[in-house]
């Protein structure tokens, strides 16, 4: 088990640490390093635009059990980090 104090401690060039992570985890680590705020919330409109689909279909995705949305009131949201992980899992 690898323990890290900071996500910036892991680099793709550090082969000792790299061997302890899957490619998916390494990609996620590198992506999170480049995102200003990985916990920003995306709306249905943001997801619809990213997936190049209509808002009605994006609303259906937000209702799926496997989609990590947060529905606290009227605006449905999902954190960017959770959305990226969900999206990456669907691309495999």
Q: Could you please describe the fold and organization of this structure?
A:
There is one protein chain. The chain is mainly α and 92 residues long. It has helices at residues 15-18, 23-34, 44-51, 55-62, 80-91; strands at residues 41-43, 77-79. The protein has a two-stranded antiparallel sheet. The chain is elongated. The mean pLDDT is 81.
Which key features would you list for this structure?
mainly alpha; two-stranded antiparallel ribbon; elongated
Q: Can you describe this structure in just a few lines?
A:
Strands 1-2 form a two-stranded antiparallel ribbon. The model has no long low-confidence stretch (mean pLDDT 81).
């Amino acid at each position: 088990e690898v323990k890290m104090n900071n996500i910036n401690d892991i680099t793709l060039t550090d082969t000792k640490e790299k061997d302890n992570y899957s490619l998916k985890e390494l990609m996620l680590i590198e992506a999170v390093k480049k995102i200003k705020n990985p916990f920003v919330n995306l709306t249905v409109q943001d997801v619809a635009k990213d997936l190049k689909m209509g808002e009605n279909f994006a609303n259906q995705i937000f209702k799926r059990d496997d989609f990590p949305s947060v529905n606290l009131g009227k605006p449905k949201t999902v954190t960017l980090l959770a959305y990226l992980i969900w999206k990456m899992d669907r691309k495999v």
